[in-house]
């Protein structure tokens, strides 16, 4: 087997070793069922327990209050880009989207099919003597339309490596795409009305999308909403609507159990602080590398940076691979280097990466 110290890919992403070992056992036989987890029926007694345990554990780890439903849906986060306006627009004429980068713009693009989209900008480019710096925009000039059905935010932009501070004073329901930041820190559910995330980065594998939604938003789907995208149907059927992606939901449960064994979300936040501080320190101290994002917007999860020339960049990526640091090539739209550091990322892997940057 190849020597892998860490896999830094943005998603599908690294799974903790102990989780993979448990999955291997359960692929052989799940409990005493006589079946592999890959064969288990979505209406079996065993799966009923798996999905309920996943729901309960997610609720307790995130401290999700009563009055929110937890749904396990399909079609990824991209499926939610259509599901949101279809389920939430109701008879309101506007949806408000905060533009912070690629994924928020993509979500807004989808919403435009269903109604008028108001865009608010979260970041701005400033030219300085040292080049361009991306800083947070003053939010006091945001004028959220009073007749907006919801305000959509992407708290962590996976490609650019931009992280937004919480919006705590919205006057309309707040919807958040947490595909690259779900369960990476505690959150206050008073500030959110709907959270969604494809599970493949922070919570398992592709195939299931977690939706946490305030119950009073469930009953307003447009008539043309496809059955599989309706929140009320998923709530009513406890997410066993058609053939549920059993294996993907099972992986969510194993990841949640792992998170619980690590002590929950407070230690996850502390670890993310430590990893990202170390990496940004190395980038800032190295004249050959550059990250244009101002401190207040820097992601603690996806850290993107450039290396001064293409030859050096390619040599860096090759050397990283030789050292067992995999998945570091930047997104195809952005280039450069991107280190995605989800909950399972060991500090030692980031130390190795930081040492490589320092030695450039
Ligand atoms: C923030 C964010 N939103 C949405 C998506 C799209 O997710 P999916 O592939 O599950 O549709 C991604 C994928 O990288 C993402 O990072």
Properties at a glance:
360 residues; alpha/beta; Aspartate Aminotransferase, domain 2; Aspartate Aminotransferase, domain 1; 2 domains; seven-stranded mixed sheet; three-stranded antiparallel sheet; 9 helices; 16 strands; globular; binds pyridoxal-5'-phosphate
What does the main sheet amount to?
7 strands, mixed
CATH fold field value of the largest domain: Aspartate Aminotransferase, domain 2
- Stretches where pLDDT is under 50 for at least 5 consecutive residues are none
Bound molecules: pyridoxal-5'-phosphate
Rg, alpha carbons: 21 Å
Q: How many distinct beta strands?
A: 16
Strand content: 15-25%
Top-tier CATH class of the largest domain: Alpha Beta
Overall SS class: alpha/beta
Q: What's the number of structural domains?
A: 2
Task: Output the helix-strand order.
Answer: EHHEHEHEEEEEEEEEHHHEEHEEH
Query: How many individual helices?
Result: 9
In terms of quaternary structure, the protein is: single chain
CATH architecture of the largest domain: 3-Layer(aba) Sandwich
Indicate the mean pLDDT.
96
Choose one word for the global shape.
Answer: globular
Helix content: 25-40%
In CATH, the homologous superfamily of the largest domain goes by the name Type I PLP-dependent aspartate aminotransferase-like (Major domain)
Distance between the termini: 29 Å
């Amino acid at each position: 087997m190849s020597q892998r110290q860490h896999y830094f890919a943005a998603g599908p992403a690294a799974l903790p070793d102990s989780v993979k070992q448990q999955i291997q056992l359960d692929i052989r036989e799940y409990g005493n069922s006589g079946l592999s987890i890959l064969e288990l029926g979505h209406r079996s007694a065993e799966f009923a327990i798996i999905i309920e345990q996943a729901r309960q554990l997610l609720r307790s780890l995130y401290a999700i209050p009563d009055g929110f439903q937890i749904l396990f849906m399909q079609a990824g986060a991209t499926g939610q880009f259509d599901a949101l306006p279809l389920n939430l627009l109701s008879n309101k004429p506007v949806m408000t989207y905060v533009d912070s980068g690629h994924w928020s713009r993509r979500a807004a693009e989808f919403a435009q099919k269903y109604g008028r989209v108001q865009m608010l900008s979260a970041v701005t480019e400033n030219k300085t003597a040292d080049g361009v710096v991306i800083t947070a925009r003053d939010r006091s000039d945001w004028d959220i339309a009073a007749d907006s059905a919801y305000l959509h935010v992407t708290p962590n932009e996976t490609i650019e490596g931009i992280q937004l501070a919480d919006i705590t004073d919205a006057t309309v329901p707040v919807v958040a795409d947490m595909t690259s930041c779900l369960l990476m820190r505690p959150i206050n559910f008073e500030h959110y009305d709907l959270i969604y995330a494809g599970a493949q980065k922070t919570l398992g594998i592709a195939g299931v999308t977690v939706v946490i939604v305030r119950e009073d938003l469930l009953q307003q789907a447009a008539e043309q909403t496809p059955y599989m995208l309706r929140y009320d149907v998923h709530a009513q059927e406890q997410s066993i609507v058609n053939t549920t992606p059993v294996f993907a939901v099972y992986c969510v449960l194993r990841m949640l159990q792992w998170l619980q064994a690590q002590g929950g979300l407070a230690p996850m936040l502390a670890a993310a602080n430590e990893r990202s501080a170390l990496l940004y320190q190395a980038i800032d101290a190295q004249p050959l590398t550059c990250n244009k994002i101002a401190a207040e917007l820097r992601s603690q999860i996806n850290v993107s940076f450039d290396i001064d020339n293409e030859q050096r960049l390619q040599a860096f990526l090759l050397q990283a691979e030789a050292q067992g640091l995999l998945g570091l090539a930047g997104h195809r739209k952005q280039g450069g280097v991107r280190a995605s550091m989800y909950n399972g990322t060991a500090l030692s892997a980031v130390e190795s990466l930081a040492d490589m940057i320092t030695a450039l």
